[in-house]
Amino acid sequence: MAGEKIIENDRFRVYMDRERLRGQEKPHRVYTGDDRVLVQQVGADMAKAVSEGMGRIGAGDVLAPGDLVAIKVNLGGGIHGVLPTYTDPEIVEGLVDWLRAAGCKPFVCEANMRGHTITPQLLQVRGYTGFMTAKKVPFVNLSTVRRVSFSFLGIHKRVDLPLLLLRPNVKIISCAPPKHHWECGITCAQKNLYGAISEHKKSRYHRAYELIDHVVAAAARVMKPALSVIGTRQLGAGLGPHFAIPFDFNRIIFARDMLSCDMYCAEILGYPVDRIKHFQINSRGRPVSWTLIPGSVPPDPAALARIRANAIPPGRVDRSKKTLFVQYFVPSFLQTAAYHHFEWLLTWLNRRFYVPRGDPPPGPRRRGAR
After folding, report:
1. What is the pLDDT of residues 201-223, one digit of tens each?
2. Is residue 268 assigned to a domain?
């Protein structure tokens, strides 16, 4: 019999069981039917682009003054110096500015991964420290806050989630770069929430062929974003998340529903949505659609053609799942202790073999321009 109820809504309940927090997912429909998607063009002034996009998507309808807003960034899977592989700090800064002007209380968050502990040094290298320090933006490492041992529907393993992102007064924005992923097809709104799982031993979910897809889908269902903000100046195509061919994109995709967002992003990335397992799990065979909001500026057709020509094939994703799983049996403490020392090698490989195949890095940007 479950113990004292802590949180309950239509998606899950959290309760105390012998001094330990536990969670239980409830059956619920994931897709909201709100298929509005906005494609906002990015110019020299990123803050202006973010502000206009938040206004056009109607962010004020879902984010109220006084709300705590978690900006879940994608940092753990990125590569130093290869901007298409991690969340652009300029987009995050623009979100912070808009949220504060709207009376919200934003914070930035990410959890530790096998390759990266989210340290102040990593935030510095990835370009976050400057604006976060100047604007006193809190950062929360989701691996260090109180956890809930969660039981998802259809998954036999319990997964640790951060209590912070389950609280009713916290709204989540999934903010990630659109990119290909060698085991999940794409990283966009839903896949980004996998990174919010508190455990740094997330590699254990890669050890069975489809377990990773089910955990990705479940994490997104329970820690469901109020808004998805998926964008980048240069999109990383190819063998993501660690190797990226950069192509000029200069767009931010805003969406009210994570499934509509990912369906549109899949089209941009040239990856068939019916082969994205976590998408199919959460759509449950029901139709999902997207409708562009008037004023949207779709990507340049020539850029789209280049991105799609370099998309990772679904067959390669299937093969990767069957061959890469061996590496995930390396003890987690060795992965955490050793992998980050080889970051320089991944950066070198990207710059030597992948970056030259795409567009040159963007020139100097007007940080904080108004």
Report:
1. 777 776 776 899 999 999 999 99
2. yes
